[in-house]
Write a structure and sequence with these properties.
This protein has 6 helices and 7 strands; from the N terminus they run αβααββααβαβββ. The chain has 189 residues and is of the alpha+beta class. The chain has 2 domains: 13-111, Winged helix-like DNA-binding domain superfamily/Winged helix DNA-binding domain (Arc Repressor Mutant, subunit A), CATH 1.10.10; 123-182, no CATH class. Helix 2 (29-39) packs across helix 3. It is elongated, with a radius of gyration of 27 Å.
Length: 189
């Protein structure tokens, strides 16, 4: 395994699914592909060019073993089984991927109330929006939904101190300015 990859990232998502399936029982390649299609309800249709190289890499790293079942009237089948090293790697990877999932869920929950506004405009309109926002910050509350056509009413109550971040960037022959204003709400610990 690569030592460049962060701990817990040794097994990517495809390999993780392969280890998960093989932790249930040994399977042959085509059976693995069909089982993945079934579990993903057709949302992901794994290709042999994805699955077999991943199985080969898992085998090279001693996470799975294989044996060939010789068939008389149909093609031979290569069966894969999880090794003890594979079980240990699966356990470690599950801890990591569980944490990743928790971070994503927390991020989603904390950012569900995000109000986004993006529109093509002109300099005069932009100047008016920024001036109105500046005047709104002079008061106790900022009624964002009165300044911008956001999906739902948003009332902000900025308190001192405020943190202001201004980012100017040039990328792909485009210029961008991003502004961020941050404060700690009074009712937060």
């Amino acid at each position: 395994m690569s030592t460049v990859v962060p701990r817990g990232m040794k097994v990517g998502t495809v390999s993780l699914w392969l280890l998960l399936l093989l932790s249930e029982r040994p399977m042959y390649g085509y059976e693995i592909i069909r089982e993945l299609e079934k579990r993903f309800s057709g949302f992901w249709k794994p290709k042999t060019g994805t699955i077999y190289p991943a199985l080969e890499k898992l085998e090279q790293n001693s996470l799975v073993t294989s044996r060939i079942e010789f068939m008389e009237e149909v093609p031979d089948r290569k069966h894969y089984a999880l090794t003890e090293k594979g079980r240990a790697e699966l356990a470690q990877s599950m801890v990591y991927w569980t944490r990743v999932t928790e971070v994503l869920e927390n991020y989603k929950e904390s950012h569900e109330s995000l109000a986004r506004y993006k529109v093509e405009t002109n300099r005069k309109e932009l100047s008016k929006i920024l001036a109105d926002l500046g005047r709104a910050f002079e008061g106790e509350e900022v009624e964002l939904h009165e300044l911008l056509p956001v999906d739902k009413p948003v009332t902000m109550k900025p308190v001192e101190p405020l943190k202001f971040k201004f980012l100017y960037a040039k990328e792909n022959h485009k210029l961008e300015v991003h502004m961020e204003i941050e404060w700690q709400p009074k009712d937060s610990p």
